[in-house]
Amino acid sequence: MRYLPKSPAERKEMLAAIGRKSIEELFSSIPEAYRLKKPLNLPGPFSEAEVIRYFEARGAENSIGYSSFLGAGIYSHLRSVVTDAILQRGEFLTSYTPYQAEISQGTLQAIFEFQTLMCQLTGQEVANASMYDGSTATTEAVLMAERLTGRTRVLVARSLHPEYREVLRTYAKNSGLTVEEIAYSATGTLDVSGLKSALRDDVCAVVVQSPNFFGVIENLEPLADATHEAGALLVVAIAEALSLGLVKAPSEADIVAMEGQSFGLAPSYGGPFVGVVASREKFVRQMPGRLAGQTVDQNGHRGFVLTLATREQHIRREKATSNICTNQALCALAATVHLTLLGREGIREMAEQNLAKAQFALSQLEKIPSVKRSFAVPFFNEFAVELPRSVKMVNAELLKSKIVGPYALGSAYPELSKHALVCVTETTSRGEIEKFVSGVKAALEVPL
Amino acid sequence: MTDKIKKASRHTSQNEGLIFEKSSVGKRAFELPPLDVPAVDAGKSLGPYYRTEGVEGFPEVSEIEVIRHFTRLSTWNYAIDLGMYPLGSCTMKYNPRVNEFVARLAGIATEHPYQPQELSQGCLKILSLLEKCLLEITGMDAITLQPAAGAQGELTGLLLIRAYLQKRGNPRKKILIPDSAHGTNPATAVIAGYDVENIKSDSNGQVDLAHLRDQVNENVAALMLTNPSTLGIFEQQIPKIAEILHAHGALLYMDGANMNALAGITRPGDMGADVMHLNLHKTFSTPHGGGGPGAGPVAMKRILEPFLPVPILVEKEGGRLALDSQRKDSIGRVRAFGGNFGVLVRALAYILAYGPGVRQATEDAVLNANYIRKHLEGTYDLPYTRPSMHEVVFSDAIQKRRGVNTMDIAKRLIDYGFHPYTTAFPLIVPGALMIEPTESESKEECDLFIDAMKSIAEEAEKNPELVKTAPHATRIRRLDEVGAARKPILRWKAGEKSANDEVDTHPRKVSTPTVPTC
Questions:
Q1: Is any Cβ of chain A less than 8 angstroms from the Cβ of B74?
Q2: CATH 3.40.640.10 is right for the domain spanning A81-338
Q3: pLDDT tens figures, A339-377
Q4: Do B332 and B452 reside in the same domain of the chain?
Q5: Dihedral of CA A309/A310/A313/A315: which sign?
Q6: What number is the ipTM of this complex?
Q7: Distance (Å) from the C-alpha of residue B159 to the closest C-alpha of chain A?
Q8: pTM exceeding 0.80
């Protein structure tokens, strides 16, 4: 087997050295009755070429050759080949969690840079080394707010990503948290009066997403005021992190929970991505996950270490701030390299292209008389439109022209059954947008 | 230095500051294709939400500077690609490059989980085949691939147990955890809403059955057992343990962190485990990447299947695959979008490369561990002498007499060109040296490691200071961890002096590093 570096003679020699006659003897502590008598029923062994052929064949059964208007928490963005070249350096790819700081300075300094970039983006003072994804980061942010306030009621915007809400509920169920949803208003933003009437002194956190699931940018200031007045913490979730290239940082937030997939990570059918929790400095001791900090070695040279580990499970065990251990380090490195490549000008320009293309798509769609914009408020690269027919039917028509249509909001919001969430990024060409719009028009004209 | 260091020699490495310190206004490393639609005035479109100044502090550098920056940083890391990484319980094995290649293919990396399922049959087939393979390897009946890592797998497993017991009327209160367990076990139990009760190991490092019998009652939901244990010893009593638990209506959770000792040899499902997680970034070779991403599938017996997280993969008529979210007893969703698909792809590529030959990998892993044990026994204290599986745990008892502890030996190993083993874990072995070579090491690399460990033991006798002040060959020396935690500096701030410009030459006392585990 090509991955195993031993010849049969070497195996024999090593067995002899430990005084064993056969490999089986090494497994004598496993009761005989439980040792497998026959080989496992697994496909293979396959050569490298066969492995590649298998996955190429699976890829061909997917959506190659289709253009897509799906966003809803996962976004297609340009990625430089440089990012992958760095990620595939074995020194990053095949190293372990940087507990042995002297021989992990590369990873540690990269994490420190990642934390810095995340603070700059979110307007927060500290950011951790990564969480699994945006959904679990949001949940961990709520658990953090619970620890900080000692309260157990959570108010969650209904316009928070439906799957983020589901994950929060799974975790909350057994942590003694009660989760209540706050409706959205006619403009698609959080219903502030509804929030105010639900806020009491037992609320630990108000969770709002911006841009929210409908693509709408929330006005955070009044939400923060109301939340703070009740002594609760404002958690702002961000699913499309590229928006921060153009949209004001959520500095009103006490905790930001972000999905960083837009920064150099492929959609990859749902992962791996990179979650981030960022917050104010005074809350750092309740933060979940790893943190890299700057320090000096015994000669006074700058170096980095994993720090504040007394929050973590390997020291604190059942008293830890989270059970997270393995996180998404390599994905955080991808985001770090990607954002370094983009730089201050590049992130703005990429964000501007998203805004321009989404607005162009909306203006073209609005030329179809029966298509209406759902919410007339500022958005970034995603917006909702109301169609005169079911989104499912329109999408089925679009599929015939090799277009994956927009997300049907009705699948998570029954009251929005004819509303579609359209996402357009810098990767979508004008031609694709025009083809999509004429496809929608044609679909609406198909005789029923 | 010593001429006994055979694997490594010193060479020049490049200095490099923080990327923010190289920034200069107007440089850029990325250009976009020109905009092909009318430009918009962002300030006007976004109104009060417009970020007028852009992202302040973001670096402005060129492409070559980005390449050099991260390449220089990379050279400061140790990696499996450089040599043996004997971290016990971490299973640092070779990460095959073809796995990276296939995970990046068009049609694999490019897919969106909300696209129509008829356009996702390739992805779903990959998930389905991986499910079947993992069920065959574990001997279980049902599986979820959703959890993002081992700790989330543990949580999923405990939530399944809770849902199952709840359905039978009482979720119960306690989870039993052996004193040798990994820290995630108790941390997870708390998130699942359970109290933790420790159970003692006996003098052989096995679960003390008498104690277990005393502790199991109607308040106990489950026992979380790592097998082989963190001592690298197979828990022979596992069928008995399962029997004791089952007699009281409790379940057996198996932490599969050490599955690399069992794959192809024996199956947890056959031995009475009710539910277990697998760390695909350990046994199934997906890269650790400096701390993730991982994946922590959870396999279980039929009784727990109704509670699986949604969505679940189902086969429809004609072999078409679909995702089903309509499951009334489901524990819910533990992660958005169904899991770390890219990691699952890599794990399947690994399994396909081996096929049933996965057994050979297990055999070689156990052979390596026992070969190292044989050669170091006597030089280092072996507190538990039962047969080792894929890892061996020594203690620093012999070296301690000269004032040298496990962390010192670990740091000295760095000078010899090796990554340290896992230090001071499991907690039941004071001053533990936990060594897991994996199957990826040749006899030559194992011999070099043995020589290095023997040489360090000799140094500890003759020149303990040399070991206690190690490492000597690294870019930086031991770091001030207490200072880092006392006054945390967790990000770069504009205008602050670069510490590299100003080296403080007063030697300082450096505090003992914290205990790292996997």
A1: yes
A2: yes
A3: 999 999 999 999 999 999 999 999 999 999 999 999 999
A4: no
A5: positive
A6: 0.98
A7: 9
A8: yes
